[in-house]
């Protein structure tokens, strides 16, 4: 099967696997994983060494357009990270392009005090 016959989700999963082979979360510097669906965007702070989610935020908790949801999720995840004593993270864009909702979420998390 060539790349022309693969679906967008299959291609995204391949990109995500490529990114995940490099990006690892630790207790001192957890991984900020981003996921987008057609309606919502969500983010999790993950400690890969323990295999645990430290904090999570989901767009369905907020009203408005997807970009508004992404900004709110970024701000919320930054607040939860600060409450857990985390200031530095590694960013996992989940195989998505760094633009639009992903960039908005990342910028909001940076403004909230997280260092990538």
What would you say this structure looks like, in words?
This protein is α+β, with helices and mostly antiparallel strands. It has three helices and four strands. Strands 3-2-1-4 form a four-stranded mixed β-sheet. Strand 2 and strand 3 form a beta hairpin. It is globular, with a radius of gyration of 14 Å. It starts with 7 loop residues before the first helix and ends in a 5-residue tail after the last helix.
Spell out the key features of this protein.
3 helices, globular, 116 residues, alpha+beta, 4-stranded mixed sheet
Helix/strand layout:
Elements: H1 8-20, E1 31-36, E2 41-47, E3 52-58, H2 66-83, E4 90-92, H3 101-111
Parallel strand pairs: 1-4
Antiparallel strand pairs: 1-2, 2-3
Shape category:
globular
Q: How helix-rich are the residues, as a percent range?
A: 25-40%
Distance between the termini: 37 Å
Pattern of helices and strands: HEEEHEH
Quickly describe the structure:
The chain has 116 residues and is an alpha+beta fold. It contains 3 helices and 4 strands; from the N terminus they run H-E-E-E-H-E-H. Strands 3-2-1-4 form a 4-stranded mixed sheet.
């Amino acid at each position: 099967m060539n790349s022309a016959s693969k679906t967008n989700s299959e291609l995204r999963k391949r990109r995500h696997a490529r990114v995940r082979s490099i990006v690892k979360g630790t207790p001192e510097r957890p991984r900020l994983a981003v996921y987008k669906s057609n309606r919502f965007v969500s983010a999790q702070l993950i400690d890969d060494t323990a295999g645990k989610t430290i904090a999570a935020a989901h767009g369905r908790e907020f009203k408005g357009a997807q970009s508004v949801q992404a900004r709110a999720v970024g701000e919320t995840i930054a607040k939860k990270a600060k409450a857990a004593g985390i200031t530095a993270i590694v960013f996992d864009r989940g195989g998505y392009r760094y633009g639009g909702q992903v960039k908005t979420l990342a910028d909001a998390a940076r403004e909230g005090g997280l260092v990538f």
